[in-house]
Design a protein that fits this description.
It contains 3 helices and 6 strands, in the order E-H-E-E-H-E-H-E-E. Helix 3 links the parallel strand 4 and strand 5 (100-105). The chain has 124 residues and is an alpha+beta fold.
Length: 124
C-alpha cells in the first residue's frame, strides 16, 4: 500500500492521506478548492472546482494513474444553486471519462469551501 500527500496541513491534523494506492486501485480523498502551492482558496466555485481537479490529477499521476482511470466520483456542493456554475468544469475534466457519479448537497468543514470532489480510480 502507498500513501500520497498533497502537502495539505489538514492531512496530518485530521489523520488522512490525499490518496491511497492498493494494487490496481487508487482512492483519492475528498479534495477541496485550495491551491496547495499558495494555500489560498478562490471565492469562485468554478475556480475551486478547477483546483480540485488539479489536485486530483497530481495525486493520480504520483500514484501512476491517469484521469482516464477514474471509475467513481462524488461531488459535494454546499448549495444546489452552485450546480450550474460547476457543470462546465465537470464536463471539461470528466465528460469523456464518464465515471459513475453521485452529487451531494451538504456542509463542508470550512465556510470558504464550496465544493469537494472525491474519486476512485482503477487500472486494469
Amino acid at each position: 500500500m502507498k500513501r500520497i500527500s498533497s502537502g495539505s496541513p489538514f492531512e496530518l491534523k485530521m489523520g488522512y492521506s490525499r490518496a491511497v494506492v492498493k494494487g490496481d486501485w487508487c482512492f483519492v480523498s475528498g479534495t477541496t478548492g485550495y491551491d496547495y502551492t499558495t494555500m489560498t482558496m478562490p471565492g469562485d466555485v468554478a475556480q475551486q472546482t478547477q483546483n480540485c481537479f488539479a489536485t486530483i490529477r497530481g495525486a493520480l499521476a504520483e500514484a501512476g494513474f491517469a484521469m482516464e482511470d477514474i471509475v467513481r466520483v462524488q461531488y459535494t456542493l454546499t448549495d444546489a444553486a452552485l450546480v450550474d456554475a460547476v457543470v462546465p468544469v465537470l464536463g471539461e475534466h470528466l465528460g469523456e471519462i464518464r465515471p459513475a457519479a453521485t452529487m451531494v448537497i451538504a456542509g463542508l468543514i470550512r465556510p470558504e469551501m464550496l465544493i469537494e470532489v472525491e474519486v476512485t480510480a482503477f487500472r486494469g
